[in-house]
């Protein structure tokens, strides 16, 4: 089976995916590596969002009504019903859909029990059935066996990202296929003939992910590729004659390499002059031709193909926005492409045999993620969501043009009419550069009743604030806060020049964009410009700390979730399995050995005496990307200033929050903090 599970690339994701990394497409599954993105659970950051127009939708309950275009919508100036965080958390997250071997069911990951487990649901609809029952560590589905009812899942320990690959048999027995004493393992896909599957591990060398071939029946494994260069493995040829990898020279410059299994030789397939990004999109399952994504010679990323006959790169697809993913169905009958269009995504579905693009009519505004084809190529599964509607699982019949909704994930207590649709807005920064954003305006905010506001900074470097449902943003807006999700310079999705504009400038120009965002909010007639805060996670958390440190009068309060306070320590301590990507991060942010003075200059910890506004810091104790010391030390330093500082340490989380109970705790604590410093003492009480 094959599908689309990548995300817009851009920033330090290392060999993993999303906003800071190399997006991977099924059957090439997510590869271990890093990213400094996160606030909501990591899977929602790692999944790509894309518009998928549907022809017909069969109930369960109908999705939210189609909103009018942003320019045409009339503002609704009425008080919306207020909800508690527990009511918002009645919403279930679903992700990672995979068809069962008989294509009668779809398997997926779900946090319906408060923690992620694997479940299944019939393709015709019905009540989901739980297949795993973990109560401690999240279980994430990664693959289903194509010829029987076994499936593969990954699990770490308390968010430490030291994942192992497990198999579950129909009788409920689970077996760790990668019982490593130390290191990580990730599933990356089944072989084309379905007799085997591939797993990468760093058990031999903690800085390199080797590829192992596992027999699908016995699980016996053989080493297919010893990855001495520490490249990011991106795929295996249909005939297993070669392995293809992504090399990150910088976060905006990279090559694609091929390893020949027979001769044990490596070849750079994309030598080029200057800075240009090359990375693997997919492999044609019939011809074996390699499809790549590149911005070499263009402002936006386009799709090219390496000719099997000549070896030359041929143009396949391009647009005035970045193409960030393409993938084939199992025999290559279909190919689907995703474009990053102004904070949302547009999809192009291609009938490969006919050589035509299948025209699909536009439907209600929304985004789709985790699109996956069935083996028989007559169905595809996907998740669909909107700003006001949580992701739901659908199955789309490519023959009848009918999509069936299989889940109803929205919290029963929530009325989507009380929630808010985002609007794409732009403002000019200090130097005239136009900065794109998503703006969420509370229903009750008016010129007569001005609201406090928050600048929401995404992770990265790179990354992007994108359309889609986020419980916490809707909670904040529902409680009366205007939220501006900024895409400061350096963000993905707005062309090569915009993406590279933050290189070696962190804590400076990109931070000034965030400061200007406060000025933009203050210019809005319904915003109280004297009550503006800032919030962000990971790299966004760094931006919070940097804003309060280097521009101490710009915001009235800040919430930092696992943000970097000391770049020297974080860069030196990057997880070893990121391999060659570590050097790319040094090029993006700074080399801790050669640029110590510069990195100290932009690290809030060394200037914490300048912080004078209230700060809330949130940290997962098991975070392997931004270690707990980053938060411990900035909290201790700010306390010396006599400034109100609060610290919430979660002992059972890592880089992002995977347990519902912790999400409730974090989100409520953040709201209480902002209410204390940005609202009058008489805050409204939520209606039960």
From TrEMBL:
Identify the residues that the record assigns to the Peptidase S9A N-terminal domain, covering every copy. Answer: 144-404
Q: Which InterPro entries match?
A: 6-blade_b-propeller_TolB-like, AB_hydrolase_fold, Pept_S9_AS, Pept_S9A_N, Peptidase_S9_cat, Peptidase_S9A
Q: Name one Pfam family in it.
A: Peptidase_S9
Would the keyword rRNA-binding turn up in this protein's UniProt record?
no
Q: Does the keyword Hydrolase apply?
A: yes
Enumerate the UniProt keywords alphabetically. Acetylation, Hydrolase, Protease, Serine protease
Start and end residues of each Peptidase S9 prolyl oligopeptidase catalytic domain = 473-679
Report the superkingdom from the record.
Bacteria
Q: Which family does it belong to?
A: Belongs to the peptidase S9A family.
Its biological function? This enzyme catalyzes the hydrolysis of the N-terminal peptide bond of an N-acetylated peptide to generate an N-acetylated amino acid and a peptide with a free N-terminus. It preferentially cleaves off Ac-Ala, Ac-Met and Ac-Ser. Also, involved in the degradation of oxidized and glycated proteins.
Kindly provide the name given to this protein in its UniProt entry: Acyl-peptide hydrolase
To which species is this protein native? Corallococcus soli
